[in-house]
């Protein structure tokens, strides 16, 4: 069980997070705080009773029927987030909490279209989130990358416009010793019916520009959403990917090509993809040699940040320290950071394992 010394071991593991939506860190209390500051009218009590107070909104987030039910809440709450400082505050909420959970390196998603569609300038969003990343490195020693996601329920033409905004703003360009502000592309939102192939052109353009590529796949959708992301989008990682177990041939390919899955156990339970964490194919992935990291997805909605996910996995699978070593090693090596940073993280892992031997 995840208690006492084992909990300390999990807490002290040097974690890399690869599947985290910054917008998914918008808690009910931060939503109300920003709405008040910005003079934003959240839905009225008559329209949506859950917006009566922080407490009623917290209660609403205790149960989601499925991914779409969650996404409806997720997009609505964003109305409260307006200024560059708001985006920085949202990013900072993530970095401070993740730091306390032992995250050393984070590759975080953001959804520009959920803001530009409300009239917020693209630069306001990116500059705010990037300010939080820079502050995290300076004040907390955490390294990070931003991953720009396309919303798959919107047409590819909207993704193309988003791509153009990032190019025009110079956010994909490395400048004078500074890395590019946006390191990679992602694909999220409603999965079933919105196939990865629709975004082929944007991903081809991203590959040409030297951007990293990942996409949500096999969260609710069948394994063809995973193979589609590999074949059409040339993804280096797959976000979620739990439906992979339905296709043994594809599983063998994922192992052979060393594609990292970014698994989010508490999210899968909250969105009813599985009944309990024990149904997430953690044991199967370890046995078959599928590389994966463990992540929090949308922690303000799914009951906890990364450490809660590590603990939930431990409670469900009772993994050995050797198995945790494999998981953390794979998350370090599957990160989109340079070898020097990976070596630092691997050495932190070594120290942690020695301390807890
Ligand atoms: N779990 C998830 N799946 C798809 N899109 C998302 N956007 C935020 N969280 C998501
Ligand atoms: Zn996600």
How is this structure best described in words?
- The protein is an alpha/beta fold and 357 residues long.
- It has a single domain (15-356), classed as TIM Barrel (Alpha-Beta Barrel).
- Helix content is 48%, strand content 12%.
- The protein contains 16 helices and 8 strands.
- The protein has helices at 4-12, 28-38, 54-60, 67-77, 84-100, 113-116, 122-140, 156-168, 200-208, 224-231, 248-256, 265-270, 282-288, 306-317, 321-333, 339-355; strands spanning 15-17, 103-110, 143-151, 182-188, 212-217, 237-240, 260-263, 292-294.
- It has an 8-stranded parallel sheet.
- 49% of the residues are buried.
- The model has no long low-confidence stretch (mean pLDDT 97).
- Bound molecules: adenine (ADE) and zinc ion.
- Adenine binds at residues 21, 24, 67, 74, 188-189, 216, 219, 267, 297-298.
- Its cofactor is Zn(2+).
- Belongs to the metallo-dependent hydrolases superfamily. Adenosine and AMP deaminases family. Adenine deaminase type 2 subfamily.
- InterPro entries: A/AMP_deam_AS, A_deaminase_dom, ADE, Ado/ade_deaminase, Metal_Hydrolase.
Binned, the helix content reads 40-55%
**Share in β-strands:** 5-15%
Name the CATH class.
Answer: Alpha Beta
What is the CATH superfamily? Answer: Metal-dependent hydrolases
Essential attributes:
357 residues, TIM Barrel, 8-stranded parallel beta sheet, 16 helices, binds adenine, binds zinc ion
């Amino acid at each position: 069980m995840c208690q006492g010394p084992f909990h300390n071991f999990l807490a002290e593991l040097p974690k890399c997070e690869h599947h985290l939506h910054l917008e998914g860190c918008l808690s009910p209390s931060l939503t109300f705080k920003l709405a008040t500051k910005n003079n934003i009218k959240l839905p009225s009590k008559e329209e949506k009773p859950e917006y009566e107070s922080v407490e009623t909104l917290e209660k609403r987030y205790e149960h989601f029927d499925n991914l779409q039910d969650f996404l409806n809440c997720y997009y609505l709450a964003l109305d409260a987030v307006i200024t560059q400082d708001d985006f920085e505050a949202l990013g900072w909420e993530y970095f401070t909490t993740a730091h306390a959970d032992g995250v050393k390196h984070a590759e975080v998603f953001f959804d520009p279209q959920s803001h530009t569609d409300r009239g917020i300038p693209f630069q306001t969003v990116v500059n705010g989130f990037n300010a939080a990343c820079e502050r995290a490195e300076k004040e907390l020693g955490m390294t990070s990358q931003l991953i720009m996601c396309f919303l798959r329920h919107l047409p590819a033409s909207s993704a193309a416009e988003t791509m153009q905004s990032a190019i025009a703003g110079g956010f994909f360009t490395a400048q004078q010793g500074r890395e590019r502000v946006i390191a990679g592309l992602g694909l999220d939102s409603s999965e079933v019916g919105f196939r990865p192939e629709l975004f082929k052109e944007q991903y081809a353009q991203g590959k040409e520009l030297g951007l990293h590529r990942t996409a949500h796949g096999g969260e609710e959708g069948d394994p063809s959403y995973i193979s589609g992301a590999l074949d059409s989008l040339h993804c280096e990682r797959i976000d979620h990917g739990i439906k992979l177990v339905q296709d043994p041939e594809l599983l063998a390919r994922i192992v052979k090509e060393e594609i990292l899955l970014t698994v989010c156990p508490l999210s899968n339970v909250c969105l009813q993809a599985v009944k309990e964490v024990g149904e997430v194919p953690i044991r199967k992935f370890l046995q078959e040699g599928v590389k994966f990291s463990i992540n929090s997805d949308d922690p303000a909605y799914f009951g906890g940040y990364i450490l809660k996910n590590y603990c939930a996995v431990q409670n469900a699978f009772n993994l050995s320290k050797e198995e945790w070593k494999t998981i953390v090693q794979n998350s370090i090596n599957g990160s989109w950071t340079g070898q020097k940073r990976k070596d630092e993280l691997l050495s932190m892992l070594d120290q942690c394992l020695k301390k807890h031997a």
